[in-house]
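#struct-pred

JT: dropping the chains for the assembly here, can someone run the whole complex?
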Amino acid sequence: MKITELQINNFGKFHQKKIAVHPGLNVIYGDNETGKSTLHQFITGMLFGMEKQRGRAGKNDAYQQYEPWNSSSYYAGAMRFQVDGKSFRIERNFYHKEKTATLKNELDGEELSVTHGDMEMLLGGMKKSTYENTYCIRQAAVETGKEFSGILQNYFVNASHTGDSDVNLTGAQKKLKTKQRELEQSYRKEWEERKSACEKLQLAGEIAKKDLKQLEQQLEQLKAEGYQTQILWQNPEGIPMENETNPMAEFLQQEQGERQERRCKRGKGIFGGVTLVSAILAGSRLVGKGLAAAISPIFFIEILLLIAGGIGVIYFQKQEEHLRRERKAKEEANRGLRGQKEEIEEKEWTKKQAVVQMLNQQKIEKSSLLSNLTEEIEETGKKSEKEQELERQIAACQLALQMLQKISENVYEDTREQLEGEISGILYSLTGGKYDRITLDDDMNLVVCQEGRTLYPWQLSRGTMEQMYLALRLGAGRFFTQEEPLPVLLDEAFASFDEKRLESALKWLAAQPEQIFLFTCQKREMELLDRNAIPYGKIWLQNI
Amino acid sequence: MKFIHIADVHLGAAPDKNTPWAQERKNHSRKAFEQVINIAEEEQVDLLLIAGDLFHRQPLQRELKEVNYQFSKLSHTQVVLIAGNHDFINPESYYRTFPWEKNVHFLKKESVEYVELPMLRTRVYGLSYWHRELPEALYDNIKVEEGSFLNILLAHGGDEKHIPFQSEKFQRMGFDYVACGHIHKPMQYIENRVVMAGALQPVDCNDIGAHGFFMGNLTKERCQVEFHPLTYCEYAVMNLKVTSDITNGALEEFVKKRLEQAPEYMIFKVMLSGFYDGSAPIETERLEKLERVIQVVNQCQPDYDFERLKQQYSQQLIGKYISAMERLPQDEVAKLALYYGVEALLDS
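RK: done, full complex below.
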């Protein structure tokens, strides 16, 4: 693309200006504040349009900065240019409320549509951001903008020589990662639900196991006491049904009854003992008293005592008789009790045997429960259909990400080599052969090789660094333009160049196919061009 | 002789866990079983055949008592049952010691035995599972007693791990009727002669279609059975072909309408096929949340024209991505990955 004429109707400080442009190298000379940046912005505005940003962000944007000084609603201009030898004219009004753009093929007068992307097509598919980061090198922004490495990466990845370059690797990766994360969350939720269900079952299983163990211990103990603990399952009638008898309740009742009886028996024994002892004591007292009376001189008292003793004897004899009877009755009762006891023991054995059987039943019930629980735990242990589906989806996300990474790496390598070749060629010319190999590291940093040493730009002089970035931007610009190169806007790009460097840079630039606009506030570029008899267009801002 | 043949009642099963209707579903097997008992009593059926898996797991004593109570209500019917692979007789099983009602005959031996019902002039053969799996063809060589008695076999199994059998052999052995269980789908291997009852009610959402029992008449000369569906629950597949212009909202409305039209006992598995708009994937969760939808299987493909995309973006990431993915072995994951990747690339 070659710009042939700029027509500024109303843009910043310029009104109704027409500027003819040289197809090769143009030097736009002017002191500070004469409108270099305005013209710079006008050209990019004509190429890509200009948007007013909303709100606070719009306060200092380019739109506001170059709003016409006299009338803000008439904010317009036109530009003639050639693409592929054909002449076009674009006319734009930037005024945000009545934004218009018309594009015309001047040869046949055909109206083209900017809104339908015809201008974009003439620009070879280059985006504004890419342009601003490559061909349009701004004052004090020589070092690449932050976006630049991202743009480079995307371009590498797309190897964008043709077609749509909007496909965005990082965006796609981000999308896939988000999707994967979401899927993983649902998977985790499913998994946790299953896990907690499983844990509940396991807890129930543990309890059942414990109960079972206790039952087994009880049975073991009863077996040691000589009870039959084998399950007689071949003979179903051998085990009474729970509803037929309630051995446990009966057993308990029996236990209680026995305890009461025992207590009672113990009480009777004590009573009997006391009566016996008192009877013996009474007897011995009587004998003692009789002997004492015989030898005692105080006979009267003795007699009285004897009478008393006699009464006592009768009394105690009666008492003894009564006791004897009682004892006899008790002995008889005891004999009866012994018989009863045997009977009770026998009964107790059968009852206890029933308890054993009941424990056995409980054991069976518990182990059935346990085996059912184990089965259920096993079933819950398996992944659900939904989980399997989610697993597949997660795996698909991973595969997609892997594949994207792999492809982009391959493409990246190819493209990087091409770009590096381009940049290296430019740097070679710019530096007069001093640096011949420029490369990009993995983070898109420039690296230069000099006599086998690897150097980063900051390790070099300011002038060399600027040469490198210039080479990078021109190289990248060329690399990204699909058909014709776009005009290059260099805004004070050579301020740090010494004369020798500037000379070789200018010589090289003049020989390039791109149209070049060199914005400067110094006359040395023009002097050097004149001295070398290089043809160029001269635009003195003071004079237009 | 009038008989009812059921199998795979799976008492105690809890289908559709984690759904709002799980509690209700839990009761269906019991209710269906009780209904069969009532029908047997009403119809004064002579014989009730239960071909295994009456219980979903090891029966507990109280469960056996409940079932026994149901059998006790039968004033006329004789019951013959066996244990299947789900309620197999383990060493501690209550099945071993349970005292059944007089009209109930439990064939609990590990090998084929028979019970003779002289009143019905019938012998019922069968065995019970003592293990979860039984890969031996135990029904292959049964010696059927000769005479005028009707010979019936209760057979549980029919797949590789559970007593494989061939229905033709049964007839050669001389059985008048073979009442099969284990496979949950009701079918007649040999019409009116070798019949798989199917689950009495579906046990999980993969048991698609009608479920119920067979009732029939058997004489030495002929046998005639008829399938009687029970409708506590039925799973059905709702096949929907999606086109790329359908919205999620419209799809949801459509499914809702179909659900309203269907009988209330039906629970659906929604199968989506066809194509969807690649930039607006189908939100299956929305359908999954609908009542009486147990599962949504999305087999739709995005309406991407991969060939066209490949040409359009031949030198770019999308084109290269599609080509590279197509070179991979085309399993489900690779196909999904192709969609996901293209969707992300076109969308960013």
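JT: nice. Chain A touches chain B through 54 residues (CB under 8 Å). Confidence is low (pLDDT under 50) at residues 159-166, 233-245 of chain A.
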